[in-house]
Design brief:
41% of the residues lie in helices and 24% in strands. The chain is α+β, with helices and mostly antiparallel strands and 498 residues long. It folds into four domains: 3-122, PAS domain (Beta-Lactamase, 2-Layer Sandwich); 130-250, Beta-Lactamase (2-Layer Sandwich); 252-338; 341-498, Histidine kinase-like ATPase, C-terminal domain (Heat Shock Protein 90, 2-Layer Sandwich), CATH 3.30.565. It has twelve helices and 18 strands. The strands form four sheets. Strands 1, 2, 3, 4, 5 and 6 form a six-stranded antiparallel β-sheet that branches. A five-stranded antiparallel β-sheet has the order 8-7-11-10-9. A five-stranded mixed β-sheet has the order 13-15-16-18-17. Helix 8 (252-303) packs antiparallel against helix 9. InterPro entries: BphY/WalK/GraS-like, HATPase_C_sf, HATPase_dom, His_kinase_dom, HisK_dim/P_dom, HisK_dim/P_sf, PAC, PAS. One of its GO terms (cellular component) is plasma membrane. It is a multi-pass membrane protein.
């Protein structure tokens, strides 16, 4: 067999055994041999590439330049990558382009014919990875540059490598001024002197004191001012190099707000103490002489009844009523002041029992019927406050009733996260313009000498309901009746009840 034929067959066998796509072209640019891997890469069925010009495998727009460069290579053939420094693309039989890397190796036949062998690598996957990595880096760079919090990166020696714009604003240094310098320059004493020891201790032992944990520390600005900050440090390894990234938040405003809140709390505590003292004075120093006045008025009205004419008797009646009203007003003020300030232990309260007690205590007159819906729920609250709540609402309905056959109904409904209660009567009703006013302290719509009222009851109702996180409102039609609505959450937030 001819030696040339043997060599050609050997070369074809080597190409077919190769796993990488390979092809051999002559000086005219015609493909002499192409292995199966090359056919698969370009989408051709073997041996379709044989005898074809290599330009069918390059983008149409650069085919002319490729032919010229092919001629240049033939003049100085050597093993080298094709198009060094350029991003090469190949053309698939389906017409789409894909990125490749091509290695060229010159060959020469015994008769002096020059060939070139090309090894082609499809780098589509690598390009996608590089693109994704670049996009990821760009996103991270955008986060780094635009983050509101300060971000500082240091190496394992504590030297600053990067500092984002927020960090530059907070500390007053530029990145160039701190780059390559020890991070401790941003710390006040004694942390400045201790930092190198902390870092060395961690690298030596792995014992974490702040890495991976949030911590409140002090920072030092370029102008020498010290400020409070939250610091979180994360460890990372990049190309085998240990790095630490610190996330810093200036909490000066938060600390100032906390100080203001502490001062306000101290003032509130002082005001509560004064209110407690005032309540004590009202309870003892005012009610004692008031009781004396009431007793004296009762004695005069009884022992000197025959001495008074009708006008005198009316004046004595008004005097006694106003003394009683004043005593009731003092009691109402004391009750109002105690809501939310003096706390009882929360307990499970059966409202069926509470309503029975309230109705029994009020003892409605025969012409007023009080109806309470059966199976009222059990709520968790302070017993005294719940008793006051229903007592005031029912007392109002009974007190202002103007119908010969009065009706008062207490109902409820399950409103999901809360209970919705309603106390409805068929009394005189309330004009809409008074809906907000009636819940204010000391406000009453009827003349005080006609209906005994302190104007505290509904204000107390509103304060109790809102203390438990509920709402209270009124619906009414004049001469037809009034419905007071209020809600109580089924679950009290932590801290609501002691």
């Amino acid at each position: 067999m001819d030696t040339e034929v043997l060599k050609t067959q050997s070369l074809a066998w080597l190409l077919s055994a190769a796993t990488d796509p390979m092809l051999i072209a002559d000086e005219a640019g015609l493909i002499v041999l192409a292995n199966d891997a090359a056919h698969r890469l370009f989408g051709y069925a073997p041996p379709a590439l044989s005898g074809q010009a290599v330009e069918i495998l390059v983008p149409e727009g650069v085919a002319g330049d490729h032919a010229r460069l092919r001629g240049s290579y033939a003049e100085q053939p050597r093993a080298r990558p094709m198009g060094k420094g350029l991003e090469l693309q190949a053309r698939h039989s389906a017409g789409y382009l894909f990125p490749v890397e091509v290695s060229l190796s010159p060959l020469e036949t015994p008769d002096g014919a020059r060939l070139v062998m090309a090894t082609i690598h499809d780098i589509s996957a690598r390009k996608r990875y590089e693109t994704a990595l670049l996009e990821s880096e760009e996103r991270m760079r955008a986060v780094f540059e635009t983050a509101v919090d300060a971000i500082i990166t240091i190496d394992e020696r504590g030297m600053v490598e990067r500092m984002n714009p927020a960090a530059q604003r907070i500390f007053g240094w530029t990145e160039a001024e701190v780059s390559g310098k020890n991070i401790k320059m941003l710390m006040p004493s004694p942390d400045r002197e201790r930092h190198d020891g902390y870092l060395h201790h961690y690298i030596s032992t792995g014992e974490k004191r702040i890495i991976g944990k949030g911590r409140e520390v002090k920072g030092l600005r370029k102008d020498g001012t010290v400020f409070p900050m939250d610091l979180a440090v994360a460890e990372m390894h990049i190309s085998g190099k240990r790095m630490f990234t610190g996330l810093v938040r200036d909490i000066t405003e938060r600390k100032q707000a906390e100080e203001r809140n502490a001062a306000l709390l101290a003032e509130l505590t002082s005001a509560n103490e004064e209110l407690t003292n005032f309540a004590y004075v009202v309870s003892h120093d005012l009610k004692a002489p008031l009781r004396a006045i009431g007793s004296l008025a009762d004695w005069l009205a009884t022992d000197y009844a025959d001495k008074f004419n009708d006008e005198g008797k009316e004046h004595m009646r008004l005097l006694i009523n106003r003394v009683h009203r004043m005593a009731a007003l003092i009691d109402g003020i004391l009750q109002y002041s105690r809501v939310g300030r003096v706390r009882e232990a929360g307990a499970a309260i059966d409202l069926n029992r509470v309503l029975a007690e309230v109705v029994d205590l009020l003892a409605p007159p025969p012409h007023i019927q009080v109806r309470v819906q059966a199976d009222l729920p059990t709520v968790t609250a302070e017993p005294t406050r719940i008793h006051q709540l229903f007592h005031n609402l029912l007392s109002n309905a009974i007190k202002y009733m103007d119908k010969p056959e009065g009706e008062v109904d207490v109902t409820f409904e399950d409103a999901g996260a809360e209970w919705h209660f309603q106390v409805r009567d068929n009394g005189p009703g309330i004009e809409a313009r008074h809906f907000e006013r009636i819940f204010q302290l000391f406000q009453t719509l009827a003349p005080r000498d006609r209906v005994e009222s302190t104007g505290v009851g509904l204000a107390l109702v509103k304060k109790i309901v809102e203390m438990y996180g509920g709402r209270v409102w009124v619906e009414s039609v004049v001469r037809q009746g009034t419905a007071f609505h209020f809600t109580l959450p089924k679950t009290q937030p932590t801290g609501k009840l002691e």
